[in-house]
Amino acid sequence: MKILILEDEAIIAESLFQLLESMNYQPMDAVATPDEAIALLNEEHPGLVIMDIRLGKGRSGLEVADYINTHYSKLPFIVLTAHSDKATIQEVKRFRPAAYLTKPFVKETLFAAIELALPEHTEEPAPAPKPTIQPETREEPLFIKIGGRYEKVEIKHILYLQAKGKYTEIHLPYAKYLMRMPLTSFAAAYPQINWVRIHKSFFVNASYVTSITGKEITVQESKLPIGRAYQAEVMQRFNAV
User: Fold this and answer.
1) Does the structure show a pLDDT above 70 at 141?
2) Does residue 119 carry a pLDDT above 90?
3) Please, is 8 exposed, middle or buried when counting C-beta atoms within 10 Å of its C-beta (0-12, 13-18, 19+)?
4) How far does Cα 131 stand from its chain's mean position?
5) Beta bridge partners of 211
6) What pLDDT, on the 0 to 100 scale, is given for residue 49?
7) How far apart are CA 154 and CA 39, in angstroms?
8) Where does the record place the Response regulatory domain (predicted)?
9) What is the DSSP pairing of strand 209-212 with strand 216-219?
10) What Å distances lie between residue 220 and 152, 157, 160, 173, 180, CA to CA?
């Protein structure tokens, strides 16, 4: 079954393509704009569409959702987004997606979303493999190259992550390190940590959060901003009343 990918972040698009291939689906080359997606819909007739809703230049994947509902009403689509606040969910619900997938995602959640989107799909893909990080090895440290040496970082001790362009700054109680990996990719690589996204530039380790206000969260001694788009989700995640 062919799957159309609408995603303007190249790293996420490539990751999604590889995950779909590994599950024996047939991903099409990802496109970055609604116009390209609609053209491929009409030319290739995919069996499923996975679309990001926040695209560049003010465009939205929901333009494609609207087109699907008008011209291909039986075609299922999955909405992919970094936002799960109430306003975004209410906006998306109007277009009746088959599933809703939040970033960062892992193979198992992607597989589940596809299965929910295709309840009557007869060609069953290969079962989702076990996570590459097994429970008994999840506490293994990360080694980061600093100059001519490698320093050990215990993943469970990470307080929070901060985006620095194409890099991620890793904050620990005793040091901070810069890794050449985008923020969402790093968080997705270590799903065993209870990450909470509080801002487009920050993920925090929920285990180290000490206090929350409507606009700020404290992780040990560090005070970090909560983005407006994430406030409702953060308060709900921590059962803040």
Assistant:
1) no
2) no
3) middle
4) 16
5) 218
6) 94
7) 47
8) 2-118
9) antiparallel
10) 21, 12, 10, 8, 25
**31 DSSP assignment:** B
- Which is nearest to 40 in space by CA: 48, 120, 78? 48
Distances (CA, A) of 129 to 26, 109, 111, 216: 18, 12, 10, 38
End-to-end Cα, the chain, rounded Å:
46
Tokens of 151: 């320093």
Q: What percent of the chain has pLDDT over 90?
A: 24
Confidence of residue 210 (pLDDT cuts 50, 70, 90): very high
Report pLDDT digits (tens) over 158-185: 999 999 877 889 999 989 998 877 888 7
The token duo for 35 is 């116009």
**Residue 87, both tokens:** 């306003």
Structural domains of the chain, ranges and CATH numbers in brackets: 2-117 (3.40.50.2300), 135-237 (2.40.50.1020)
Tokens 């099409």 map to which residue? Answer: 28
Q: What is the dihedral of CA 120, 121, 124, 130, to 10 degrees?
A: -80
Contact 8, 32 (CB under 8 A): yes
- Quote the CA–CA distance of 97 and 152 in Å, as a whole number: 43
CA distance 110 to 99: 10
Contact 163, 175 (CB under 8 A): no
Q: Give residue 219's identity as a one-letter amino acid code.
A: V
